[in-house]
Specification:
85 residues; 3 strands; alpha+beta; three-stranded antiparallel sheet; single chain
Length: 85
């Protein structure tokens, strides 16, 4: 599958998001969805809110998504509280 996209330019992006640990079942509940039968509700990941994105749920200001824990932690760095800056 990678071969199909090998000639595409490579980009590195920076995106600031808020995130918290959340199971896939809890995320589906947060979004008002029913967990699909073929998904594992106890899978741990992160609820991610991108405040720059258009809101896709009435429960958050910004774009809400869910990312599996291993993928999130391998691609995100905790900044912490920067309210003093």
């Amino acid at each position: 599958m990678q071969q199909k996209f090998k000639d595409m330019p490579l980009y590195v992006g920076t995106l600031y998001s808020n995130a918290t640990l959340m199971s896939l079942a809890a995320y589906n509940e947060f979004r008002g969805w029913t967990l699909p039968a073929n998904e594992q509700g106890d899978e741990v990941g992160y609820l991610v809110i991108n405040p720059q994105g258009k809101s896709n749920t009435p429960h958050a200001e910004g774009y809400a998504s869910w990312i599996p824990k291993d993928l999130f932690e391998s691609t995100h760095l905790l900044v912490g509280d920067v309210s003093d800056l």
